[in-house]
Amino acid sequence: MDRRSFLATAGTAAVIASSADGAHAASSPSLSKPPMLRPPMLQAGDKVGVLDLSTAVYDPAVADRVAAVVQGLGLVPVLSPHLFDRSRAFKASVQERLSDLHGFINDPAIRGVFCARGGYGISEIVDRVDYDLIRRKPKVFLGFSDPTLLHLAVTRKAGLVTFHGRMPGLAKFTPFSLEALRRAVCAPEPLGILPNPEEGNPLRPNYPLRTIAPGQAAGRLVGGNLSMIMAAMGTPWEIDTRGAILMVEDVDEAPYAIARMLWTLRHAGKLQAASGIVVGACAGCDKPSDASPYGLNEVFDLVLGDLGIPVFSGLALGHTDETLTLPLGVQAHLDATARTLTVLESGVLG
Q1: Other C-beta atoms within 10 Å of 128: how many?
Q2: Among the four residues 29, 267, 299, 345, which has the most C-beta atoms within 10 Å?
Q3: Where on the phi/psi map is residue 173: left (φ > 0), alpha (ψ -120 to 50), or beta?
């Protein structure tokens, strides 16, 4: 999808906002919370710090990938001191990652912080991050997958909008993903209706949208990677879904594993507390297994279909070649019948 097609969707936000389910929205606890702090918009020529808080990066080709994406946004990449030089000693690695993160937040020349990649590792540092510093000096923070844990913690501890989107060090990065990222962090307008990529074969789409439970809802956007949401349960950064629109996605998990995580969230009351749910594209999660007779879509219907809230699946959010960027913490409208998610507020200050 080209830039013009993307921009055409933004103008629908005000219309959709007025059609939201008023009774549901009025009773939503999330709407009574203080508004989230938003970081300043990134502008041409701004410097963006790129770091690695998860699995260590050693491939020097990642530097070229990062440069292509960040420069494609009209920004200037600044690589963290330990991006390609992280210690293999645990304590030293923790200190290096914290130093890189806090250094970028403290540096007034750095206007945003992008994770180079995901993987594993934020669980090792999340309890040591200076969230007061992040709130005092708000900046765009981008990542997904393992960084979901930091999104949850920043939401809880700093009250700052963060961005769930494709990271610049990944091997694949399409023009669709770049434009989605640009609109989220480099433009002051709300995103409006989030569009999936154009399909080469509409009879067999790569991103099929499906209504699981019809209806409409409004609320603050929360969520991210399902495995990391589960990893935060019982911690100070456990997800708060009350009155919110919950987004979940995952990758390479068997349907029974997805079911187990969703059932756990349901047993904990997290699913019922949401105003609505959107399931991202769960890449590689529909592989047959002897552990359970249910496929992925059956799992979604079984666990999510009778919650009494609207639910749909299929948006290009998560581990997909083409990825939307979602500002976590802003108000949105979900129409599961029409299979649309409309972002009503900008995630940045223009």
Answers
A1: 12
A2: 299
A3: beta
Closest by Cα among 273, 283, 291 to 318: 283
How many whole angstroms separate alpha carbon 294 and alpha carbon 305? 14
CA distance linking residue 223 with residue 241, whole number of Å: 8
User: 188 with 285: CB under 8 angstroms?
Assistant: no
pLDDT value at position 281? Answer: 86
How distant, in Å, are the alpha carbons of 19, 102, 279 from that of 212?
Answer: 21, 42, 10
φ/ψ of 212, rounded to 5, equals -100, -40
Give the model confidence (pLDDT) of 52-66 as tens digits: 999 999 999 999 999
Judge contact between 126 and 149, C-beta under 8 A: yes
Strand order from edge to edge, sheet including 192-193: 192-193, 340-343, 331-335, 216-225, 245-249, 276-280, 311-315, 210-213
* C-alpha–C-alpha distance, residues 144 and 164, integer Å: 5
pLDDT tens per residue, range 127-139: 999 999 999 999 9
CA distance 268 to 41: 36
Quick one: which of 297, 250, 246 has its CA closest to 272?
A: 246
Positions of the chain with pLDDT lower than 50, given as ranges: 1-31
The separation between CA 59 and the C-alpha centre of its own chain, rounded to angstroms, equals 25
Burial bucket for residue 98 (CB in 10 Å: 0-12, 13-18, 19+): middle
pTM, to two decimals? 0.89
Cβ distance 180 to 69 under 8 Å?
no
Burial readout 12-41 (b: 16 or more C-beta within 10 A, e: otherwise): ebeebbeebbeebbeebebeeeeebbbbeb
Task: List, by residue number, the catalytic residues.
Answer: 145, 249, 319
